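Look over this record before class:
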Amino acid sequence: MEEIDVKTKYCKFCGQRIPEDAVMCTHCGRQVEELKNEQPQVIVNNTNTNTNINDYGRKPKNKWIALILCICLGFLGAHKFYEGKAGMGVIYIFTAGIFGIGIFIDLISLLFKPNPYYV
């Protein structure tokens, strides 16, 4: 049989042959070499150039203005035009606020919206 030529050294505690690059003895388990304390060089580039634009093109609207418009001119859809919903405003004009039911629903929903709310 041929023996593979592996570079070895002897454990200073038990005297057994161990691989040359071993830090721990494979026989007795004791540490035979000092651990190399080389820390990798880490470069942290922490410059934040992001800009937060989370409104997605939405405009803030005042809840109280929309509520007053809904109470006074709800049958004309003034609060819908204020929110930028012109199509719904036209429907409110021709149906008198969807026969009053739409105005009532909008009053309740406007009361529970935060101020300002986004449309």
The first strand starts at residue 8 and ends at 10. Strands lie at 8-10, 17-19, 60-61, 117-118. Residues 70 and 79 are 5 Å apart (CA to CA). The mean pLDDT is 86.
